[in-house]
Amino acid sequence: MARGVRGRGLTRREFLITGLGAGAGLVLLGGCGGDTSEAEGEIQLNFATWGIDAELEAFQNIINQYEAENPDVSINLTHVPSDYYEQLDTRLAAGNAPDIVRMQYQQIGRYSSEGALVDLTPYLSEGDGDEFEPAFWQAVGYEDRVYGLPHHTDTFALFYNADYFEQLGVEVPQSLEECWSWEEFTNLARQIKEETNATFGFAMNWQESNPYRWMPFLYQRGGQFLNDDLSAPQINTPEGIDTIAWTQSWFEEDLVPPNTSVKSTEEIHALFANGTIGMMLNGDWYLPYLEDHMTNFEYGVTYMPCNIEKASDMGGNALAVSKDSNHPEVAADFIKFVVNEDNMRNFVTSATFIPVRTSLLEQELDYRIRPDAMEIFLEQARTIPEHMASVQTLPEFNQINQVMADELELAFVAGQDPRTTAQKIEEGTANALGN
Amino acid sequence: MSEKVMLMLKVSYNRQMSQKIKNAVIWVSVVVAALVMFFPIYWMFVTAVRPREEIFAPEVQLWPSEFVWSNFVEAWNTLPFTQWYINSFAIALIAVVITVFINLLAGYTFAKYDFPGRNVIFLLLLSTLMIPIQVYIVPEYLIVAQLGWVNTYWGVIFPRAAEAFGIFLVRQFMMSIPDELIEAARIDGASEFTIFRKVVLPLSGPVIAVLIIFTFMWRWNDFAWPIVVLQDQEAYTVPLGLNLMQGAYYTEWTYLMAMTLVSILPMLLIFIFFQRYFVQGIARTGLK
Amino acid sequence: MQRRPLQKGTGELRIRIRRWWQRHQRRLIPYLFITPNMIVFAAFMFIPILYAFYISFHDWSLIGTSQFIGLGNYFNMMQDDLFWQVLINTAIYTLGTVPTSMILGLGVAILLNRWIPARGILRSIFFMPVVISGVAVALVASWIFNDHYGIINNTLRQMGSDPIPWLSSPTWAMPSLIIATLWTRIGFCMVIYLAGLQSIPSSYYDAAQVDGASSWKQFRYITWPLLGPTTFFLLIINVIYSFHVFDLIYVMTGGGPGFSTTVIVQYIYQAAFQTGQMGYAAAMGVVLYFIILAFTAIQWRISRQGESIE
User: Fold this and answer.
1) Labelling A102: which of B137, B231, C18, C235 has CA 20 to 30 A away?
2) Count: domains in chain C
3) How much is the CA Rg of chain C, to the nearest whole Å?
4) CATH of region B74-284
5) Quick check: helix, strand or coil at residue A102?
6) What is the pLDDT at residue A40?
7) C189 and C305: one domain?
8) Which residue ranges does UniProt annotate as crossing the membrane (chain C) (predicted)?
9) Closest of A412, A434, A405 to residue A212, by C-alpha
C-alpha cells in the first residue's frame, strides 16, 4: 500500500514532466531562442547572397571595411547556395527576411510591386542615379521610386576551344562589327562537330530554368518580346517564329547536346572544359572556373553571333533592403557603400563582372583573370537591348519566364513547331500581363 | 531389396546434389545482384579518390590510375564540415531521445487504452503522412519563426519530434504485448506510468531499436525542412552542406562524391552493426 | 494559531484532488500520455495544414497580400491540362516504382531469409542505398546517368554501341528516374519483408513439407497470405513515397525534358515558389491528399486486412 502511494506521488511529478514539459519546454525554449541579435546597442544586419568563392570573399572584404568604419554595426553574410528566391519568399511571408538582399534585375520588379522592398528614394540624393548606366538605373525603379542599387552586370559572349579553332583554321572576329552571322555560326558548329574531336558544336547556358536568356536572339533578329509600351506580347511575329525555328534547329541537327535544353540540369561549362563541345555561349563569371578546370585545351572568347542587330544577355544583380529590416537607414547606407566607385571596382575585378557605374566603364579596369577576355565582355555589354531590359524587369516577368521555360522546352525536346510555340508563348504572356 | 535401398540412396544423393547446384546458382545470382546494388557506392568512392583531371575522361576506368586520398582532406577543409557534423550529430541524437520517448508513450496509449476519440485521432495522425511538406512548409516556418527558433537545433528537432510513422510502428508492436501483464501490474497497485516504465518498456527493446535507427536516419538525411529553418552556414547540417558544395555555379564532382561518401558512413555503420536486431525489431512490430 | 486551519485546508484540498484524480485517472491518463505528441502535431502539422487549406481558397503570391477567390483555384485545376498531365506522370512513376520494388524486395528477402554464405553482408549491401539521403541519391544517379561523361554511356561507347540519351529524351528520362528510385526502394521492401518472413512460424512449412507441397505451393498458400499485412503496409507507404517524390526529380531532370518527368509535388513546388501561386499550390495539395486517402481506403477494403492494423 505504501509503495503504491509513493508510486503514485512519483507518477504525478512525472506526469507534470511529460505532459506539461513539452508545452512548457516549447515556451521556454522559444523565449531563449528569441532575440539574441540586439545585444549592447549593437546593430546587426543580415545580408543574403549566393555566389562563388570569389564573390563571397569580395563581399566579406567590403563588410569588414564597413564594420571597421562603423563599429556599432555588424553584418552577417549568409550564403544561400540554392533556391534563393524560394527561401526569400518563405522568409518574407514569415516577416523575418534578411535586411539586405542581393537580387537579379529580373526580380526587382516583382518584389518592389508586392511591397517587399524598402523604398530607397529618401536615402538617396539628387543625381545619384545619373552615375549609373541608364538601363540598370531604370531596372531598379518602379513607379518613380528606387527599390535597389545596381551593383554589377554580366553578359554573354562566345567561348571557343582554341585548339579546335586552330585545327580548323578559324579566324575569330576582330571587332564587334565583324560578329558572325547566324548562318556563319551554325556552319562553324557543324564543322566543329564533324571535323574535330568535339561530339557537339556548342551549347547555350539557359539550363536550370533560365529561358529568358533566349531573348537576346530575338532582339538580334530585330524582334522584340513585348510591344513598345510593354502592354502586350509581340512574340508571335515572323521575327519571333524565325528565332524559335533557328534555336530549335540546334537541337534538331544535334549541333548542341540534347540534354542542354532549358529545363535540364546539365552543366555545360564542364562539357566545354573537357572538349565535348567546341564553343559555348556563356557569361563572364565562368572565367575563374575555366582557368582552374580547362587544363587540356586553350580557350578564347569572342563576340556573340548577330543578325540584323547585335544583342546579348542582361545579367547581374542589384542590392536591396527588405521590408523586414529594423534598420533600413543603416542597411541603405551599407548598400550605398557596397556600390561606391572603389568597392564596385574591387568587386568586379576580383570576381570578373562588369561594373554599372559609367565612370568605371570609362576606366581601364585591372581584371585579375583573363583581362583579354574581359575586354570582349565589356564591349559586348554595350549591346544589351534597353527594351529587353525593361521587359525583363516587369513585375510579371517571373510568370513570363515560366511560360518561356515550358514552351521553349517543348520546342527543343518535343519538336513543338515554332508557330505553335510562338502562339503559346503569346497566350501565356498575355495571361501573365493580365490581358 | 538392397538394390532398392541403393536406388533410393542414389536418388536422394542426386536430389541433394541438384539441391546444392540450385543453391549455388541462387547464391551466385544474389551476389551478382548485390554487386549491381553496390556499384553506385563503389563508383562514388572511385570518383572521390581519382585525380581531379581524370573524372571527365571518356574512357571507362573502373580503377583509378592513382589514389588521391588528399581529395578527402581537401574537400573536408574547403567548407566547415567539422561544424556541420557536430550539428548533424547533435540534432540527430537529441531528436532520437525526444522522439523515441514521446512516440513510445503515444504508441502504447493507442495500442492499450480505449478512450473516446482514439481512432479518429490516430487516423488524423496517420493522414498527415499523405500531405507533401511543400504544401504547408510556409505556415510551418511562420510558426517556428514566431517561436524564435530560426537557426536553432530546436527549430529542426521539435516540429519533427512526433513521427506518425514511428507512432504507427510502436502501436503495432505494443499490441502484441499481452494485456494480462498490464492488468496484473494494475491489480498490484502500480500507477499507469509505472506500468509503462516498469512493465512495457523492458519488453520494448526491439521496437526501440527500430525507432532509434529510423529516427536517426530521418534526422540525419532531412533536407527540405532544415534548409528553410537553418539559414546560417554555421547552423547547417551535413545534407545542407553537400547542397552548398554542389553550389551556385558548378559542381566539383570529386569533392562532392568524397563528402557524400563520408556523409553516409555513420548510417552505414549503424545499420551494419545493428542489422540483425533491426530486422528482428521490425518483425516484432507485427507487420508480419 | 492562524496557520493551522490553513494547513488543514490545503490538506483537505490535497485529499480532494487525490480523490478526484483516483476517480478520473483511468479516463484522463490516455490523453495525458498522448499530450506531448499532440502538442507537436498541433503546432507543426495540424495548424499549418489547416492554414494551407484556408490558403487554397485564396490568391496569394507569398510576398504580397492574399485575396479570397472561393473555389477559383479548384476550378482552375479542372481546366489546367498540365495538372492532368502531371497526375498521369505521377501515376506512371508510381506504377513503375511500387510493384517492381515490392516484387524484387520480396524475392531478395526470400533468398536472404535462408541460411546462405555471407548473408549479413548481402543484406547490408541491399539495404545500404536506403540510408542515403534523397539529394545524395540524386547526385550519384545524375553522375552515373550523365549523357556525356556518365559511366553507363562511356561503357556503351567503348563497346561500340550508341549511347542512350538517359536524361535528355522524353522516352528515357522516366525510366532513369525509376531505376534510381528502385535502387533505394528494393532494400527498404526487403527489410520489411524479411521481418514479415521471420514472424511466420516454421512449423507451417514443416507441415507442408510432410504433405509434399512444392516450394511454389508453399509460397502460394503459406508465405503470401501470411505476408498480407506486410504487403498492405508496404503498398501504402510506397505509394505515399512515390506520390511525394521531389528531390530526386528536382536534381536529376528538373521535370524535363518537356513535361515528361514533371510530377505533382514538383508542380506544387513550382506554383508555390516560382510562379507566385501559393493558393493554387495549396489547392493541389488538398486534392493530392484526397487522392492518397481514397487509394488507402480502397486498398483497405480490397485487402480486408484492415483488422490487423485496426
Assistant:
1) B137
2) 2
3) 27
4) 1.10.3720.10
5) strand
6) 54
7) yes
8) 28-54, 82-112, 124-145, 172-195, 221-243, 249-269, 281-302
9) A405
- Helix C264-273 vs helix C81-111: crossing angle, to nearest 10: 130
User: What pTM does this model have?
Assistant: 0.82
Whether B20 has a pLDDT exceeding 90, the answer reads no
- Asked if C134's CB is within 8 angstroms of B223's CB, the reply is yes
B124 to chain C: closest CA residue: C46
- Quick check: C198 and C120 in contact, CB under 8 A? no
Say how many residues make up chain C.
Answer: 310
Q: How many structural domains does chain A have?
A: 2
Q: Would you kindly state where each structural domain of chain B is located, as residue ranges? A: 2-54, 74-284
| CB contact C122 to B (< 8 Å) | yes
Is the Cβ–Cβ distance between A48 and A61 less than 8 Å? no
Closest CA to B72 of B265, B262, B240: B262
Q: Specify whether the CB–CB gap between C59 and C67 falls below 8 A.
A: yes
Pairwise CB contact (< 8 Å): C289 & B130 = yes
In tens, the pLDDT along A112-140 reads 988 899 999 999 888 888 899 888 888 89
Provide the domain limits for residue A306: 156-313+396-433
Q: Which helix (H) or strand (E) holds C68?
A: strand C67-68
Q: Are residues C81 and C221 in the same domain?
A: yes
Q: Which of C64, C146, C258 sits opposite A413 (nearest CB)?
A: C258
Residues, chain B: 288
Cα B33 from chain centroid (whole Å)? 22
**C244–B268: do the CB atoms touch at under 8 Å?**
no
CATH number at residue C129: 1.10.3720.10
Residue B32: closest CA among chain C residues belongs to which residue? C122
Domain match, A85 and A173 both: no
**Residue C165 forms contact with A (CB below 8 Å):** yes
Inter-chain CB pairs, A–C, below 8 Å: 115
Instruction: Say yes or no for a CB contact (<8 Å) between A52 and B145.
Output: no
Containing structural domain, residue C12: 3-55
Of A301, A290, A275, residue with least CA distance to A199: A275
Contact B233 A30 (CB under 8 A): no
3-state secondary structure A318-333: EEEEECCCCCHHHHHH
In a domain, A24, yes or no: no
Same-domain status, A193 and A88: no
Task: Quote the cell numbers at residue C138.
Answer: 540524386
Q: Comparing C-alpha atoms, which of A306, A334, A341 is closest to residue A319?
A: A334
> Helix or strand or coil: residue A117?
strand
Mean pLDDT across C107-123? 86
The values of phi and psi at residue A357, to 5°, are: -90, 130
**Domain presence at residue A33:** no
Nearest residue on chain B to C186, alpha-carbon basis? B37
Assigned domain for C65 exists: no
Answer whether residue A386 is part of any domain.
Answer: no
- In chain A, which residues have pLDDT < 50? 1-38
pLDDT digits (tens, 9 = 90+) for B31-83: 999 999 999 999 999 988 988 777 777 777 888 888 888 888 888 888 889 99
Cβ contact, residue pair C108, B30, below 8 Å: yes
Residues A298 and A321 in one domain: no
Q: What is the ipTM of this complex?
A: 0.83
Q: Could you tell me if C248 and C149 lie in one domain?
A: yes
